[in-house]
Amino acid sequence: MSLHKILSGLVLWLLLIIVIFGFPFIPFNLDKKMDTPFLSQHGSDNALIFFGFQGCGDVCPTTLITLKQLLNRQENTSLWPHVIFVDIDVSSNSEDASRFAKQFHTSFTGLHIPAEELKAISTEFGLNIKQEGSQISHFGRTYLLRRNASEWRLVKIYNPDSLSLTALQSELYD
Questions:
Q1: Are 84 and 38 in contact (CB under 8 A)?
Q2: What is the 3-state secondary structure (H, E, C) of 108-120?
């Protein structure tokens, strides 16, 4: 086999590895109309939605702390996005979801959506939620939506590894 073929093969393998392992760090840019009955038509034209659960040990609290820091760094409350925590645990309830979200910031909204509605929302957002008893797995993504006239549009999805205060600040405030 020639050196050229060997090098070409190595380059292809390296590109494949970069794509596979770099994928979680890349935020997704979109512009998709979303049917989000739980989003207000009043207030901010930006919303950050995070689907998680109270018993989560790492991604969920870390994400909510990042979202809290985002609000705490912006003194002008009129620029704050709606921050909505949607509890995906089927055994939870609206009061627990609200209490949990407000532990992180009093302006956060905590919601619990009934299982049949969550299935439809899960499909629309591409959540891939799996729950067996108390074991829950999900992607842990944060969704940035913008209101355009009277409709909400999904404009960016942040994976847990790509969610940063700097990225959110530049997207929302710059």
A1: yes
A2: CEEEECCHHHHHH
* Residue type at position 105: H
Supply the pLDDT for residue 36.
74
Percent of the residues in the chain that have a pLDDT greater than 90, as a whole number: 44
Distance CA 172, CA 79 (A): 8
Q: Does residue 133 contact residue 121 with C-beta atoms inside 8 Å?
A: no
Higher-pLDDT residue of 160, 19:
160
Q: Whole-angstrom Cα distance, residue 43 to residue 79?
A: 9
pLDDT of 35 > 50? The answer is yes
Task: State CA 144 to chain mean position distance.
Answer: 7
β-strand pairing of 109-112 with 82-87: parallel
In the chain, domain spans: 29-173
For residue 79, is it left (φ>0), alpha (ψ between -120 and 50) or beta?
Answer: alpha
The Cα 39–Cα 94 span in angstroms is 15
Any idea what DSSP says for residue 70? H
- In the structure, what pLDDT confidence band is assigned to residue 98 with cuts at 50, 70 and 90? very high
- Helix (H) or strand (E) segment spanning residue 87: strand 82-87
Domain 29-173 classification at class level: alpha beta
